[in-house]
Amino acid sequence: MTTLTSFVRPPARWIAPPVVDPAVVAHLAETLSLPAVLCQLLVQRGHGDVEAAKRFLRPRLEHLRDAYELKGMTHAVDRLVRAIRAGEKIMVHGDYDVDGMCSTALLTRAFRQLGGNIEPFIPHRIHDGYDLTDAGVRAAIACRARVVLTADCGTSALPAVAALCSAGIDVIVSDHHLPGGPLPECVAVLNPKQPGCESTDKDSAAVGIAFKLALAVTRAMRPDNSGDGFVFSLLDLVALATVADLALLQGENRVFVRYGLKLMAQTTNAGLRAMIRASGLEGKPLTAGRVGYILGPRLNAVGRLGNAMRGVELLLTDDPAAANEIARELEEFNQRRQALDRTTLDEAMRIVDGLDLDAMYGLVIAKEGWHAGVIGIVASRLVEQVSRPVVVVALDGELGKGSGRSISRFDLHAGLTSCREHLVRFGGHRAAAGITVQTSLVPALQTAFNSAARQSLTADDLVPDKRIDLEVNAADLTDTLEKLLQHLEPHGLGNPTPTLAIRNAHIDGRPRRIGATDGVRTSIRTESGTLPAIGWRLGECAKLLDPAMPVDLVFRLERDQYKGANLLQLHLVDVRRS
Length: 578
Hints:
The chain is of the alpha/beta class. The protein folds into three domains: 270 residues, inorganic pyrophosphatase (n-terminal core), CATH 3.90.1640.30; 108 residues, Diaminopimelate Epimerase, Chain A, domain 1, CATH 3.10.310.30; 111 residues, CATH 2.40.50.460. It contains 19 helices and 19 strands. It has a seven-stranded mixed sheet with strand order 13-14-18-19-17-16-15, with no helix packed on it. The chain has a five-stranded parallel sheet with strand order 3-2-4-5-6, with helices on both faces. Strands 7-8-9-11-10 form a five-stranded mixed sheet, with helices on both faces.
């Protein structure tokens, strides 16, 4: 991979663990009969109250909020029940990412179980573009739909919704993206982020809203709750999409993912089973990390480089042979996606290397010929390298499609809103967004976006943070501690894997560089022997890992289960000389 030569990334800022009241930790430990170390982490993460800690450690389905807290739910349920009973065609229009595919598959499965006449549809990423557009309108008219139900899109699709309504087609929007202006006029908008919505959990992925809608419709049609079990059996799809969409793993999302991962391990979904086998995860614990880094990218790959409807077909099929065939296709798409990632990232890094990054707090990088399906991944990698918000644009003639990623201290959606005069359209949220821009306006957008970033950020904001949850000694690095930390799972955005720090660690033997991502492998000495340590994209730290000099390490304690191994190891995050 190309490395930046003209930009020296500042050393990361190590953020010490927050100070907590020892009395609160002691009370929690005594009341719940838990080790103090675990209780300290619970208090640090806002779960110091006994009931809050219980709720966090043992999330239950009864903790899910009433679906009717979502504004518009009554109207949505009434219209869908009428459509299902009358045999009217309902087109479920999803997005082409994992959240959209899983939401579409979930709603299709749930409503077909009720006897509904359901037509799933996902637009083609390259040919049709993002959101409910003319392509969705044409598809709905072609299949003679009487109702269009969106999944993970539609909040900003005012022209398309108006066109459907003019054609006599009722529209229900289910989405979770921030409204960028007025809402569409339709039967109902289910979006916890819309004004006036009383839902207390605003951080659901679209699949969580789809699940609640499916459950509400099922209970309306089967008030004896005889259909609940089928809807709850779809929580494996909810977990997959919630993790892959980087939704905060707090509140309801934690319930969804905890139960969904258990279901996924023994899923009856033929497509999920085939994908788990094809990706090499069969027989391994299905953690949120593995779902996010292994399963999610495979579904995303077909949406990025092919037709996302193949992903929906995978999740809908009950035929193991068909599932295996599509799962193999996804493997091929994922390999192609990885190759495109590397090529595009190298080209983008060369462009960045020619910029004066001291003067630029927000970057817009554009080039003709880049594949629009991989620019989001490239934007994420660039943010890791330069610690600035980045928008990467794939130009195609007079128009460009862009994908942006941000740092924690910059609201990307707000930044793009200030640049809207230079954009054809945009949408997203604080951390990620998509745009369409005229090629001729890219220079103006670059200037405006950098200006927005400079108004919001200081030079100090561009220093990457490495947050530390717990400082430990080498003697603390045991199987017992690793198992204790598992109680905090599932880990993800909003509930990250605990990051530990150790001072004055002693390296055992010379480190060695590994892999195409410039990794480093070494080991540290402990009182009971040595522990392996590995760090990806930390090759530049190899010179600091000198057996003759003690070092301070930031890391995650985990198990190495590669090729049948089951060893405790340190996953290095950062290294400093003591």
